Amino acid sequence: MKNITHTILPLLVFIGIAFSCKEEVKEIKQEGYSVTGNVKGLQEATIKLYEYNFADRGAAPILIDSTLISNGKFEFSGVIEHPDMVSVRIGDEFNSDFFLENSNISLEFDTSKSEHGRLKATVKGSKLNDEYEAQQANLDSITNQEKFKPLNEIRPKMTEAYDSKDDAKIKAFQEWRAQFSDLEDQRLNERVDFMKQYVLSHPESPVAPWVLGFQFSEGRMSKEEMKKFYPIFKGAAKHTSMFKYYEKTYDDIFNSLGEGSIAPDFKLNDVNGTEVTLSKVNATYKLVDFWASWCVPCRASFPHLKELYKKYKKDGFEVVGIGTADEEAKWRQAIEKDQITWVHLYDPSENHQWGVVARLYGVPFLPTTFLMDENEKIILRNPSKEQLDAKLKEVFGH
Questions:
Q1: Which pLDDT band holds residue 58 (cuts at 50, 70, 90)?
Q2: Angle of CA points 261, 382, 379, to nearest 5°
Q3: Mean pLDDT of the chain
């Protein structure tokens, strides 16, 4: 299957063991698919099936199939080469997903149970969907263990504190939450351990990449772990849209946009509307920083970057900030409010998707940073604060 983009990208991870990989692959080989369904609370609309595309967040979605809902009912039929999770769009308001395979599948939706347009599909006839639902149940059982119940208090208290916009209340919440950091880490580690074990036990299952989900990323796995898990996947698992995201991620980190590679050149306008070319930025070392006004960690990094900029600018250090997945007005307001004086370029985009340059650089998350030399050779990719400090001290000698 090809890939698609969806504006709401659910992070689905499911753990457990239900049947062997050989049995899964054997059972999903059918002549074609027939999907029938009902949408409670919606009589007429268009319903479309799309392929996910996590590898390119700015690409147009790729349509698999489309039909009309009449009297709340719809039907699809066709043949897919490889089973995979697919996105469902119902009219202009609702979205969902399910595992599409060559079998007879029924879907039930209830619009009264929508959560911000998201509908939970009741799926029958897809063994792969049953498998991934089983893993969701196993994952929930980890989350809902008695020892983790105190963590249920965090979200409502956080919402209350931040909605108040009261700095004192926010600070008090942050101090209160700190007591749960070890317990949060324990819950996360147990979930991740189950994800990894599922992959190890089901390397050929198309469900396996969805079990691991976005855990396979440089922000959540060490490079050593990524090198270990990438070659584990086999057969049908490698034809899923999630695994195609893994392919792109792996290539970016270890090949085309990894340390030692030459970063692609680009042109963008600065805050004054003047076109700036990366290769013509006069600096011995430059830090390309992809960020957005809404990104809290991005803006939290600015005070320290200011210190580095003040310390090394005279030696030839420059920061090239690239605002992406953002509204231009809000980007400009953040620059002024945070009083950041380095080079600022705007990467235009639609609907908070990545801009052209962010896509060119395969930006996985914000902030994403690249330290490069005057020839655009990447020295560090997404360095930690400590790694960046150490490298700048090394190259500038103080």
A1: low
A2: 35
A3: 90
CA 341 to chain centroid = 30
| Whether the Cβ atoms of residue 73 and residue 122 lie closer than 8 Å to each other | no
Run of H or E including 110: strand 104-110
Q: Are 340 and 332 in contact (CB under 8 A)?
A: no
Positive or negative CA dihedral for 125, 126, 130, 136? negative
- Tell me the pLDDT tens digit for each residue of 211-251: 999 999 988 999 999 999 999 999 999 999 999 999 999 99
Closest CA relative to residue 292, chosen from 372, 362, 355? 355
Distance of alpha carbon 267 from alpha carbon 277, whole angstroms:
4
**Distance separating alpha carbons of residues 371 and 285, to the nearest angstrom:** 7
DSSP one-letter string for 175-237: HHHGGGHHHHHHHHHHHHHHHHHHHHH-TT-TTHHHHHGGGSSTTTS-HHHHHHHGGG--GGG
Q: Is 155 helix (H, G, I), strand (E, B) or coil?
A: helix
pLDDT digits (tens, 9 = 90+) for 63-89: 999 999 999 999 999 999 999 999 999
Looking at the DSSP assignment, which residues form a beta bridge with residue 373?
Answer: 285
Quick check: 17 and 96 in contact, CB under 8 A?
A: no
Contact 206, 82 (CB under 8 A): yes
H helices within 83-180, ranges in order?
A: 127-143, 154-164, 167-177
**Residue 77 half-sphere exposure, CB side, CA atoms within 13 Å?**
4
The DSSP line for 285-338 is EEEEEEE-TT-HHHHHTHHHHHHHHHHHGGGTEEEEEEE-SS-HHHHHHHHHHH
Count of residues making up the chain: 398
Q: pTM of the predicted model, to two decimals?
A: 0.83
Query: Using omega within 30 degrees of 0 as the cis cutoff, is the peptide bond preceding 10 cis?
Result: no
- Nearest Cα neighbor of 373 from 249, 278, 238 is 278
- Pairing between β-strand 104-110 and β-strand 33-40 as defined by DSSP bridges: parallel
Which phi and psi (to 5°) does residue 198 adopt? -65, -45
